[in-house]
Amino acid sequence: MLIHSLVLASRSPEEQHSFYSAKLGFEAREGPEDHNAVNAGATKLKFQKSGSEQYYHFAFLIPEGRIEACMDYVEEKGIRLLPLDGSKIIEFDPGRSIYFFDPDGNIAEFIERPVVKGGQGPFSIDEVIRVNEISYPVEEPLRINKELRSKFGIQPGQGAFFREDFCWCGDYQGVFLLTRPGRNWLPTQKPAVPNSFEIEFETAKGIFKESL
Predict the structure, then answer these.
(1) Which domain covers residue 75, as residue numbers?
(2) DSSP character string of the chain
(3) Tell me, what CATH number does 96's domain have?
């Protein structure tokens, strides 16, 4: 699954845009329709004004072997990382991640997966491939997982797993994180809350634009 665009609700879209463009270095998009949007690799990431109180967890995909350099890059920008058991780099099977809060309180992440091998030297934000994960808290993760896979042709990749309280719906390129509201987002004690977003994504079945 490839995430082409993602529109997230924001209390302060201008502050979010400045954080991701001026601070982290993502390319700012221009034009009326692209106001408060950045290029996160191949994904258009946009922040849209909303008065509702909601937050997200999402991840940026980077090449394999680049998480240490990415960690240095993020910390040099003055962004505090969120450790787990004292470790700033959190390992999965497979993949390694670092996490941080953005100005809206979203739990953002850089994650390396075995998609493409990275180079060496200092990290560049241009190495970000695309948005890789988006949170989707729902009361019945197993049922929604089944519906998404059937409707959109999402094929579970290696490492996918399905539980009553959490489903990893996607593959190494792109994932819906289906979790029950109230379950804490790793590595924080911040519980998942229902949120709404607009997404355009691609599977083998086609390209879809949905409001979820």
Answers:
(1) 2-211
(2) -EEEEEEEEES-HHHHHHIIIIIT-PEEP-SGGGTTEEEETTEEEEEEE--S----EEEEEEEET-HHHHHHHHHHTTPPB--BTTBSSEEETTEEEEEEE-TT--EEEEEEEEEEE---SS--GGG--EEEEEEEE-S-HHHHHHHHHHHH-PPP-TT--B-SSEEEEE-SS-EEEEE-TTPBPTTSSPBP----EEEEEEETTEEEEEE-
(3) 3.10.180.10
Question: Tens digits of per-residue pLDDT, 19-61?
Answer: 999 999 999 998 878 899 999 999 999 999 998 888 999 999 9
Better-scored residue on pLDDT, 51 or 168? 168
Contact indicator for 62, 83 with CB cutoff of 8 Å: no
Beta-carbon contacts of 31 under 8 Å, excluding residues fewer than 6 positions away, are none
* Domain count of the fold of the chain: 1
Please compute the mean of the pLDDT values over residues 162-166 and round it to a whole number: 91
